[in-house]
Amino acid sequence: MGKRSREKRAKRRTPPREPGAERSEAGRGTLDFKQRWHVLVAVGSAITIALVVVGVGLSSFPPSQRSKVLPPITVIGHVERYPAERVSTAEPIPLPVQRHILEHVPLGMGGQRPGILIQFNCAKFECAPDLVDRLATIAQEYEFVYMAPYPEMDAKIALTAYGRILTLDEVDEGKIRAFIERG
C-alpha cells in the first residue's frame, strides 16, 4: 500500500474525539453504529424479558381461567373412530372422536358427509328437565348429527360443525335446525 493511499484514508477519517469533547451542532443527537447497536440489543432484551414474564404469568393460571372451554371446530388431531351411540345422554364423546365426526360421518346409503355435534352441559349449568330429550329428538331426525354431554365445556348447549360453533343458553329449535341445515 502506497504512502499516497494512506494519506487519502487518513483525510477521510474523522479525528478521534477526546473524552468530554462536545459534539458539533450538526452531530448532536445522532448515534454512531456502536451506540445504535447497544440500543438495539437493549430494546430486544427488554422485549424478550417482557414476553417471558407474560408467558410465565399466563401459564400459572389454569386453562379454565385463561379461555373458555368449548368443543373443537377443526379436524386436527382426529382419530378414525366413531362413538358407540350416535345419540347419547350419558357418555361424552372424546375430543379426537368429535374431530372425526366434524370431518365425516357414514350415512345410511353408504356415502359420507361432514357431521354435526350437539353437546350439552348439565353438570355446570342448571338445565330444564326436558332439555336433553328435546335435543335428542332433534338429533335423531338427522343421520349426520351426533349428540352427547360435554361436562367440561363452558356453555350449556353447543352445536359444532367444521369451522363453526353455536352456543345457546336454552333450546331454540329454530336456531338449532338452521345451524344443522346449513351444514
Features:
single chain, 183 residues, alpha+beta, Glutaredoxin, 4-stranded mixed beta sheet, two-stranded antiparallel sheet, 6 helices, elongated
Tell me about this structure.
The chain has about 180 residues and is of the alpha+beta class. Among the domains are: about 30-60; about 95-180, Glutaredoxin, CATH 3.40.30. About 40% of the residues lie in helices and about 15% in strands. The protein has helices spanning about 5-10, 35-60, 65, 95-105, 130-140, 175-180, and strands spanning about 105, 110-115, 115-120, 145-150, 155-160, 165-170. The strands form two sheets. Strands 4-3-5-6 form a four-stranded mixed β-sheet, with helices on both faces. Strands 1-2 form a two-stranded antiparallel ribbon. Strand 3 (about 115-120), helix 5 and strand 4 (about 145-150) form a beta-alpha-beta unit. The chain starts with a helix and ends with a helix. The model has no long low-confidence stretch (mean pLDDT about 85).
Provide the spatial order of strands within the biggest beta sheet. 4-3-5-6
N-to-C SSE string, H for helix and E for strand: HHHHEEEHEEEH
Spans of at least 5 consecutive residues whose pLDDT stays below 50 are: none
User: Please, what is the oligomeric state?
Assistant: single chain
Report the helical percentage. Answer: 25-40%
Average pLDDT over all residues: 85
- The coarse overall form would be elongated
CATH fold-type name of the domain at 95-182: Glutaredoxin
DSSP helix count? Answer: 6
What is the count of β-strands?
6
Radius of gyration, taken over Cα atoms and rounded to an integer in Å? 32 Å
Judging by the overall fold, what is the CATH architecture of the domain at 95-182? 3-Layer(aba) Sandwich
Helix-and-strand structural type = alpha+beta
Proportion in β-strands: 5-15%
How far the N terminus sits from the C terminus, by CA atoms, comes to 80 Å
Largest sheet report: 4 strands, mixed
CATH class category of the domain at 95-182: Alpha Beta
